[in-house]
Amino acid sequence: MNADVLATIVRTSRTGPLACSAALSVLVLLVPIVLGAELDFLDATLTLHLAMVAMLIGTAFVLDDPAQPLTEVLPYSARYVRAVRMALTLVPVTACWAVLLLLAPMTVTSAAAFPRAGLVVEPYALLAWTWACAVFAGARRGGRGSTLAAPALLVLSVVPALLPDPVAFYVSPGAPAYEESRLRWAVLLVLGLVALLVVVARWRPVAGGR
Description:
Blueprint: H1 3-11, H2 16-34, H3 41-57, H4 68-71, H5 78-103, H6 122-138, H7 146-162, H8 178-201
Helix pairs in contact: 2-3, 2-5, 3-5, 6-7, 6-8
């Protein structure tokens, strides 16, 4: 892929929602920090997850193709264009998530005691399912996969919060069920990646795609 083709893919991608959601996610954590809130581990974890969901909202739109007539003439398939968009999006998402993990301890009473290593995988689990929904819906709605991906992300974010303690996903670090919740997130990630690979492999645009 040459620089001109890459520039075209970047230029035709919907990066505005991604930038706005990243800024919103940082703001979610900055507010309690600036206000001097000293949250316990559970409240801090829930605040971090709220910031995570805010960050991911923008990713539901990056696979939309508002400039489909332009991208259709590129010497690459629709699958390839979407794969490039996903790969490029992972860079700012990872950077933003790193910033959020850096800010999270500042919201708790004892910053040094807030473990974060086990939280790394969570946004990628939701992201895989979000993009699977975006690809699936995009094949049927003229490339506008966000019409399904955005609400699906919200559902996937809310439902785990409603689950009972024995199968909880949102568990504060150090809690007895914390390690088991890491396993559940890992399973969710693997299943999401499988779902994404399946829908990408079976990509069949209704019209105009390749």
